[in-house]
Amino acid sequence: MTTTHSHWQRFTLKQKLSRYSVYLILLIALLQSIRTVEVIPEFFYDAPEQMADMFTRMWPIDFAFYSISVHDAMIETLNIATLGTLVTLIFALPLALMNASNVVSSPFSHWIARFFLVSSRSVNSLVWALLFVAIFGPGVIAGVLAIAFRSVGFVGKLLAEAIEEINMGPIEALRATGASWASVLLKGYWPQILPAFFSIVLFRWDINVRESAVLGLVGAGGIGVVLNDAMNLFEWQRVAMALLAIFAVVILAEIVVVQIRKKLI
């Protein structure tokens, strides 16, 4: 009497071939990308020397430059991030409601909302800034609108997902009593999404502080203008001061956001 032993395999032959095909495609894509961008090996050989030279030029840091230009530019950067986040809510809240299937049942409404949300996320903030600089000219307005239009897709999508995950029991109870649509929103939906709302807005504001720091490179105001001017004039000690200020403000914003979330959520 012969006994057959079955050999357990995690993946079938078809699954293995599929996995190896994906690996092969990724490898080919990587090699093709390297050939397309025409990487010059000589640039990598002297990179450590160039980096050491740049850091040498940055030292000592010109701390006196902070009060001259950096301070006001950083305040402007924070204002751009804050105003941009607030303007975002004007567009993100209606789009989130239109995209939530448990608020609006119309597929056409969902398609319209998703179109704007995806369009917002598809365009980088620097591209938005270039567009608004061309329309409104260099300055804070272009930066605020660039931050706002970039953030709409992020905030609107996450808010729509938070709305769709709420408990529908209170909503159905309010509707059964004959409550108006506005009352259902304010007393049924809003209390349930409030923690997620603050979390999303604070998280986006934190991101916007970082993004607004570079919008000045294309003329949209903030610390980026000071940084760009210093780099163009090869004033590396002032560049170091601007970079140090950006780093400090980003860290401080992160700490503030974490503390506020602990208090509110």
TrEMBL record:
Instruction: Spell out the protein name for this chain.
Output: Phosphonate ABC transporter, permease protein PhnE
PROSITE patterns cross-referenced by the UniProt entry: ABC_TM1
Q: Which SUPFAM superfamilies match?
A: MetI-like
Membrane-traversing stretches: 20-37, 80-104, 125-149, 189-207, 214-234, 240-260
- Quote the cellular component terms of the Gene Ontology held in the record: plasma membrane
**Where does the ABC transmembrane type-1 domain lie?**
74-257
- List the molecular function annotations (GO) for this entry: ABC-type phosphonate transporter activity
Q: Where in the cell is the protein located?
A: Cell membrane
Asked if the keyword Transmembrane helix belongs to this entry, the reply reads yes
User: What species does this protein belong to?
Assistant: Marinomonas fungiae
One Pfam family in the UniProt entry: BPD_transp_1
